[in-house]
Design brief:
Elements lengths: L5 E10 L2 E11 L4 E5 L6 H8 L7 E6 L2 E2 L4 H7 E4 L11 H11 L4 H14 L15 H12 L6 E5 L7 H16 L3 E6 L10 E6 L2 E6 L1 H7 L5 H13 L4
Parallel strand pairs: 3-8, 3-9, 6-7, 7-8
Antiparallel strand pairs: 1-2, 1-4, 4-5, 9-10
Length: 247
């Protein structure tokens, strides 16, 4: 079997006396769409920041694309794409300028970058507004542009932190169609969300409660194990168990 895209063992991050991520252990296979599900403040973003090399763990182990998060954080950044929870593009640049800027950071040769600029602009339907500042675009277009830029360099893994937050249901579906297209290309997708229905779109999901990974499996497996009709119901049962101190 090939090496997993992501491997963690007892990965932990503390801020003073507060434990944001509490001994999580899991693997993500290459090409998988893996969802990190949980309420705001559950530790999803902190875990993702450790896996992307942006935050050093307090303890535990993690390999991302075969690279160690402690010793090879810069090497990890070259092999991944990352779309942050807060909009990560430059509002005072046009769509075209944003793509060119990030393409330069990724080290894409000029000839290839010019081709990719046209590909992204045309695929997103931004041809008529490619010269307009990003701040003037609707949120849905901004999010899809940020995603396209995150995979501009064909990374092994793309990390998406709450990518559909604040957009309408139609745009959310369109965004997930883009995620499926990326997965079909063999790119591993690691996505955090607090939308319970989006869990159904993932190959497997983990559910985080208060920094712990309280459940992991395919949506079907989790619903069967917890005798639930929906992932939302699974989450409610886990949250109630945590409140009673059962987790």
């Amino acid at each position: 079997m090939s090496e997993p895209a992501i491997q963690t063992e007892n990965l932990t991050r503390k801020f003073g006396d507060f434990t944001a991520v509490d001994n999580i252990t899991f693997e993500v296979e290459k090409g998988e769409i893996f969802g990190f599900l949980g309420a705001n403040g559950a530790g999803k973003t902190t875990a993702m920041r450790m896996l992307t090399g942006l935050l050093t763990p307090t303890s535990g182990k993690a390999l991302v694309s075969g690279k160690d998060v402690y010793r090879q954080a810069e090497a990890i950044k070259k092999k991944i794409g990352y779309m942050s929870q807060k909009f990560s593009l430059y509002d005072d640049l046009t769509s075209e300028e944003n793509i060119r800027f990030y393409g330069g950071i990724y080290g894409i040769p000029d000839k290839e970058l010019y081709r990719k600029i046209d590909e992204v602009i045309n695929s997103l339907g931004l041809k008529d507004v490619r010269k307009k500042l990003v701040r003037s675009l609707p949120l849905g277009w901004k999010q899809k542009l940020a995603f396209s830029i995150a995979i501009l360099h064909n990374p092994n893994i793309v990390f998406l932190d709450e990518p559909t937050g604040g957009v309408d249901p139609v745009t959310r579906r369109q965004f997930w169609e883009k995620i499926y297209e990326v997965s079909d290309r063999g790119i591993t997708v690691f996505v955090t969300t607090h939308y319970m229905d989006e869990a159904e779109y993932c190959d497997r999901i983990s559910i985080m409660v208060d920094g712990r990974m309280d459940a992991i499996g395919s949506p079907r497996e989790l619903k069967e194990n917890f005798e639930s009709d929906s992932i939302e119901d699974v989450f409610i049962k886990l949250a109630r168990g945590a409140e009673r101190g059962e987790g």
